[in-house]
Amino acid sequence: MAKDLPKDLKDIPTEVIETDLLIVGGGNAGCFAAIEAKKLNPNLRVTIMEKAHISRSGATAAGMDAINTYIPEGKTPEDLVRWSRSQVGGGPIREDLALSNAQNLNEAVEDLEEWGLPILRDEEGNAQYRGGWDVSIHGEQLKPIMAEKAMAMGAEVYNRIAATSLLMDGDRCVGAMGFGVRDGKFYIFRAKAVIVSTGGACGLYKSYTSDATSSHHQTWMSPFNVGTGYAMGIRQGAEMTSLEQRWVATRTKDFCGPVDTISVGYKSSITNARGERILQERYAHLGGDKAPRYIRANAPMEEWLAGRGPTYADTTHMTPEEVKDMKTDYLNERPAFVLFLAARGQDITKDPIEIYGSDPYVVGGHTQSGYWVDIERMTTVSALFAAGETAGGNPNKFVGGCAAEGKLATRGAVKYMATVTLPELDTQQVEREKERIFAPLLRGPEFDGVSQTEMEERMQRLMDEYAGGTSQFYRTNEERLDYALKHLKMLRDQTKFLYAKDLHDLMNAHEVIDRLDVAEVLVHHLKFRKETRWQGWQTRSDYPDTDPKFDCFVESRRNKETGEIEMFTRPYEQIVPGDRYQP
Amino acid sequence: MPPRVDREKCDGCKAEEEPLCAQICPGDLMVLGENKKAYCRAARDCWDCMSCTKVCPVGAIETRAPYQLGYHVAKLIPMMGTNTITWTCIDINGKVERFRYKNRTT
Ligand SMILES: Cc1cc2nc3c(=O)[nH]c(=O)nc-3n(C[C@H](O)[C@H](O)[C@H](O)COP(=O)(O)OP(=O)(O)OC[C@H]3O[C@@H](n4cnc5c(N)ncnc54)[C@H](O)[C@@H]3O)c2cc1C
Ligand code: SF4
Ligand code: SF4
User: Fold this and answer.
1) Is A496 exposed, middle or buried (0-12, 13-18, 19+ CB in 10 A)?
2) Range 182-201 of A in CB contact (< 8 A) with B
3) Is there a single domain that holds both residue A450 and residue A536?
4) Which of A65, A283, A445, A534 could crosslink A294 through cysteines, CB 3.0-4.6 Å?
5) Residue A568 pairs with which residues in a beta bridge?
6) What is the domain extent for residue B36?
7) pLDDT tens across A95-104, in order?
8) Do A397 and A101 meet the contact criterion of CB atoms below 8 Å apart?
């Protein structure tokens, strides 16, 4: 393969594709966005730029065993918003966004069922709920189902094209650029409106299993979602919200798999080394089993810290039928967990499943970190829309909410598009980007530089130890954050030493560059919130209490001239009445 | 949990423009070697989503738990049918479990 690599920028072909709506990232939200666009107007040119292959890409690549948000009969979208708000300790959340998502998500789930997704139902045909809002599915084919529908509707899919930057006309987004991971070409997509739906950012932090094993990517979130969608916006001065509200979750230990499957699905208690039911016995005052999500997520790690680990999801009460059902759930979602149990030779009715904290992620479909968007899902960059994990302000979206938001972003984008035409292509801008993209590939065989793996590992350990990773039980302080910023800057300066041996390497090199940009903004957010509001997700050991002053959104914007990250706040607005802390 | 390719079984997806495992891997990890057999280029980077294992038409790919996480040797083998999937799991003590269910309604 190496023999075909270009030696000079001039040897690299450029493809220009013109479209109406460009969707960057054909995942859960991206597929729904494309389908909605074709539904609204079959003549619209809809193009998906996808880094992997749309049939098995993103968070849902291996499948899903539940749709976490589907409003049951007798409950309302407002009820879902109340629940979501209470899960993040009363917010603040963007209730306008949450409400519009909630109003649209049932329809999205029903679409999925119509397209062939098996939703488990009882004899009367009622969806089988495993908790208050989540329905059980046999979702092994979830991603292929969404992808096939998007293609059948006529969306044009470009697989194996990694987006690297937005195409701009002044302050307006008019497309995106990237490169072909297979064909090595430079791609320019010109569009009247762009939806960015590249998922969240995994791999900013070190995963605790990444030490010299074949399990560097033993992460819960897809390690191939690295936050490029955020990074592209950050570089254009887009406003980001709530990045400090990281998603840290209780996960199965050593194999970082979902735990809701066991704890919600099979009512397993979380226990510690002494056999105490942690939530009931230690967190009763905060709601026990029903405590906000960050408290439940953080509880096992606090047990370890206090010397009461290991921690477990107690499966010893389960019947053989339940064990079989539970394993079936995992086979639909994280099949290799079943292999992991087999490789431990573990009978879970005798030995409970061990649990631990995950590495931290930026995922706006779980917590609310991401782009600040308006109700149409337009970001602060005009013509640029965001959906799913990429859009912030509105936590607890999951499959249904990400799908709904894909639709909403399309509706906003289509409305917007009616008012604009495409400007001339800015050749200087695209030449600059082409040079930036391919630089690591063109450094020549003698170049003495840094591999993306080396840089990624340096960044991940830095973030882990200084910006509140798993090894530090998620705690950080002002001095550590300053240290992190200093070294992130040094790393950024050193990206000029990154070299790539092939196109796969080149993709990885850009992944580390993008992660550095997201990590820097994240650290600024952690620094700004001088309080502890969501232990685990955001723990400041130097400011251990909540401070009413920070009952607001923390926002950031990179100044395009100076490169400085500017921090500010936005007020919280309660729209859905009721006690903020109660579901 | 990196995939291991059985060199006897893998035919390099001769009939395809690009091997199916290489087409599908979300991490761009599966490649065809000089010997026309597929391999995983970076075991450390695999997310063990098993997409390659499911898509291989000749069942040449086995997903393995890294030893650092699980003991030698367990197997989990998916078989894709029309609208169904069948999994066979064999643990390190030789215990076999089978799972078969509908993964699609249409
Ligand atoms: C293991 C696991 C279990 C889960 N379980 C459940 C559950 O049971 N129920 C539930 O409701 N939710 C669950 N979730 C959450 C749910 O899957 C996600 O919230 C949702 O699918 C995210 O959708 P998205 O469209 O925002 O991102 P994704 O579906 O991840 O899509 C992002 C897309 O962008 C592409 N992309 C990334 N970078 C680029 C780039 N530079 N250029 C081009 N394309 C790019 C990716 O390849 C991908 O296709 C789970 C998530 C995980 C990881
Ligand atoms: S899909 Fe199977 S047969 Fe085809 S190249 Fe990959 S391992 Fe070989
Ligand atoms: S298991 Fe998934 S991530 Fe790993 S090589 Fe196969 S397709 Fe790629």
Assistant:
1) exposed
2) 182
3) yes
4) A534
5) A555
6) 1-49
7) 999 999 999 9
8) yes
CATH at residue A500: 1.20.58.100
Query: Do B5 and B40 share a domain, yes or no?
Result: yes
Are B10 and B41 members of one domain? yes
Question: Does residue A138 lie in a domain region?
Answer: no
Residue closest to A310 by CA, chosen among A253, A251, A249: A253
Give the helix/strand (H/E) hosting B76.
strand B75-80
Whole-number pLDDT of residue A582: 93
* A142-186 pLDDT tens trace: 999 999 999 999 999 999 999 999 999 999 999 999 999 999 999
Q: What is the 3-state secondary structure (H, E, C) of A309-376?
A: CCEEECCCCCCHHHHHHHHHHHHHHCCHHHHHHHHHCCCCCCCCEEEEECCCEECCCCCCCEECCCCC
Exposure b/e, A38-49, CB count within 10 A at least 16 = b: bebeeebbbbbb
If asked whether residues B45 and B77 sit together in one domain, one would say: no
Calculate the alpha carbon distances from B52 to A62, A121, A529, A563, B63 in Å.
Answer: 10, 30, 43, 42, 9
Angstrom distance (rounded) from CA A369 to CA A453: 26
Q: Is B87 annotated as catalytic?
A: no
User: Is residue B55 one of the residues assigned to a domain?
Assistant: no
- In 3D, which of A489, A340, A347, A409 has the Cα closest to residue B63? A340
| Same domain flag for B31 and B74 | no
A107-145 confidence digits (pLDDT tens): 999 999 999 999 999 999 999 998 899 999 999 999 999
Domain span including residue A522: 427-545
Catalytic residue among B47, B70, B73, B84: B47
Best mutation target among A225, A339, A452, A460 (most B Cβ atoms within 10 Å) is A339
Counting the structural domains of chain A, the total is 2
- What is the rounded distance in angstroms from the CA atom of residue A70 to the CA atom of residue A397? 10
pLDDT of residue A2: 44
For residues A263 and A352, what is the distance between their CA atoms, to the nearest angstrom? 12
Verify whether the Cβ–Cβ distance A339 to B78 is below 8 Å: no
Quote the DSSP letter at residue B89.
E
Residue A499 · residue A451 · CB < 8 Å = yes
Report yes or no on B32 lying in a domain: yes
Calpha distance A28→A221 (Å, rounded): 14
Distance, in Å, from the CA atom of A244 to the CA atom of A362, rounded to the nearest integer, reads 8
Verify that B70 and B42 share a domain, yes or no.
Answer: no
Is the CB of A162 inside a 6 Å radius of any atom of ligand 1?
Answer: yes
Domain end call among A305, A333, A357: A357
> DSSP letters of A250-307?
EEESSS---SHHHHTTS-PPEE-TT--BHHHHHSGGGTGGGS-HHHHHHHHHHHHHTT
Tell me if residue A62 falls in helix, strand or coil. Answer: coil
Predicted structure pTM score: 0.98
CATH of the domain at B36: 3.30.70.20
Domain annotation covers residue B60: no
Residues of B in contact with A118 (CB under 8 A): 102-105
Contact A36, A206 (CB under 8 A): no
- When pLDDT is cut at 50, 70 and 90, the band that residue A3 belongs to is low
Q: Which residues of B touch A223 (CB under 8 A)?
A: 27, 45, 47
Domain count, chain B: 2
Contact A393, A375 (CB under 8 A): no
CA distance B78 to chain A (A): 9
